[in-house]
Each structure stands twice: as C-alpha cells, then as structure tokens.
Amino acid sequence: MASILEIDGLKKRYDSGHEALSGVDLKIEEGEILALLGPNGAGKTTLISIICGLVNPSSGQVRVGGHDIGRDYRKARALIGLVPQEIALEPFETVWNVVRFSRGLFGKPRDDAHIESVLRSLSLWDKRSAQVRELSGGMKRRVLIAKALAHEPRILFLDEPTAGVDVELRRGMWEVVEGLRARGVTIILTTHYIEEAEEIADRIAVINRGQILLVEEKARLMARMGQKELRIELQHKVDALPARFADQGLELIDDGQAILFHYDTRGDRTGIASLLSELAGEGIVLRDISTRQSSLEEIFVGLVSEDAA
C-alpha cells in the first residue's frame, strides 16, 4: 500500500537548546489507523505541529501525498485535518457557521450537503443552530472534528480526541473513526486511553524523548512482546509453595488460594503441562485455570521504562 505521509530525519531544536525531535523517520500508509503513543513531553505534539505546518522543523523532510510541507505547503496542508487537544472555538457562533467557515478557509466551494453529512455523522445535526457556548465539552470536541473534516482531508490527526468525553460519546466517536477509515481516510491518533489504541489501531508507534522507539502492526507487536499470565485456582489453600518451584517464577496470591505463572508466548514450549503435572505430584489440587494476555498498556509502559533506564 502507498505511503501518504513520509517523514525523513525530522529534527526540532528550540532556541533554549531543548531537542524535541531527534531524527524521526516514519511512513504512514493510506487508509490505516496509526496510534502514536508516548509519555508527556515525548514529542508527539511537536511532531504533529510540524506536519500540520504550525511549527518549523530544524531539519529533515515531511511529504504529505507527495507534497513537501515546505515547498508545497498549501497542497500538503489541504490534505490534512487536525483536531487539537485544546478546544478553541468562537463561542457566540453557531455550529453550522463554524464548520462551514472552516471549509472556506481551504478554498473549497460551498457544499451544504457535505457539511450536513459531517454534522449528522457526529450527532451534531440537531445542534446545528446552537451557539458553541451552549454545548457541553464533549459536543464541542465533536465540533472540532467536524471542522477538521469540513474540507474533506485525506489524513486526520486526532490529538487526544476523547479527553473529557463521556463513555457514550466516546463510543460514538470511534464509530465515526471506523467510518472514516472505511472511506479511505488515514487516521493518526494520540491518546492517553491506551485501551482505545489497542482496540482501534492497525499499527502502533511509540515515541519517547524525541525518537521513535518502534513502529509495528498491533497484533504482531502484542504477539512478539506480550506475555501471558496463567492463573491457577486451588481447591485448598496452601501456606507456601514447595521449594522445587522457587526458580519457576510462580507467585502465590489471594492468601494462598491461587497461583500466578507468567510465560512467554514466543517460546516453543510454555511449560504449562509440566507445571500442572508437578503441582499434582505435590498433592496440590486445582479447581480452575484461566489465562490473560498482556495489554498494550503494559507493553507500552515496559518500552518507555526500558528507554528511560
């Protein structure tokens, strides 16, 4: 699949000497959802701001749909929709006018049918005549998304789009995102709700201290770096595990009523069968077993912790 966004050797050093980005390389494919994860201060917002033409890079190249953001700024920017973290809207203007005006800023001809479609898809149609100041925080964030979609961009940046949004609106917002992907729009998402990235993203990029630590398909990443946890419920409480299990990484929990066993999904053998046999040999009777896969959040925290070490 063709890359719609190409970033090569991107650096940003501020006059203070702080290097926000230190050689970022990234290619994003058309029609995918990429989750850009990183702790506060990792460089996420700086990267997005440079791509969108809000901040000048110190060096490196960014091409959007083949257009260099420096030489062909207008053509590149016309392909991008940006939903920022901050809610900055004209409070006394109507929702309809705010969104329609945004389309005009990109030189697009008037298209009331498109504006109506966008507002309906975001459950804003009933609020089209309301002033922005009358809306809740979650609805204002939806207006930001409508503004970003007004000029029919091919790439949509969502910078913490569900911050302050209730669960119902959040679910509806992700349904909208899925609809956009179905129409071929490329989505780049930053979020502190990592479970959202785990659910919706095709690929995961992790950035920390201005560098991309990895870019990988979500399923492959979780299979490669994830661990599984086996929980063994016991028929009878035990006060301690026999000494022979000391080097097997077992953990006695729930006041001796259960055992945790962590194993690597990449290994040829998990060791589960032999473990269960050995426990039975020691007279430890099992009542139930269950497994749990490491979450994306656990993988992310581990990556960032390793990078900071």
TrEMBL record:
<dbReference type="InterPro" id="IPR017871">
    <property type="entry name" value="ABC_transporter-like_CS"/>
</dbReference>
<protein>
    <submittedName>
        <fullName>ABC-2 type transport system ATP-binding protein</fullName>
    </submittedName>
</protein>
<keyword id="KW-0813">Transport</keyword>
<dbReference type="GO" id="GO:0005524">
    <property type="term" value="F:ATP binding"/>
</dbReference>
<feature type="domain" description="ABC transporter">
    <location>
        <begin position="5"/>
        <end position="234"/>
    </location>
</feature>
<dbReference type="InterPro" id="IPR003439">
    <property type="entry name" value="ABC_transporter-like_ATP-bd"/>
</dbReference>
<dbReference type="InterPro" id="IPR027417">
    <property type="entry name" value="P-loop_NTPase"/>
</dbReference>
<dbReference type="Pfam" id="PF00005">
    <property type="entry name" value="ABC_tran"/>
</dbReference>
<dbReference type="InterPro" id="IPR050763">
    <property type="entry name" value="ABC_transporter_ATP-binding"/>
</dbReference>
<keyword id="KW-0067">ATP-binding</keyword>
<dbReference type="InterPro" id="IPR003593">
    <property type="entry name" value="AAA+_ATPase"/>
</dbReference>
<dbReference type="GO" id="GO:0016887">
    <property type="term" value="F:ATP hydrolysis activity"/>
</dbReference>
<keyword id="KW-0547">Nucleotide-binding</keyword>
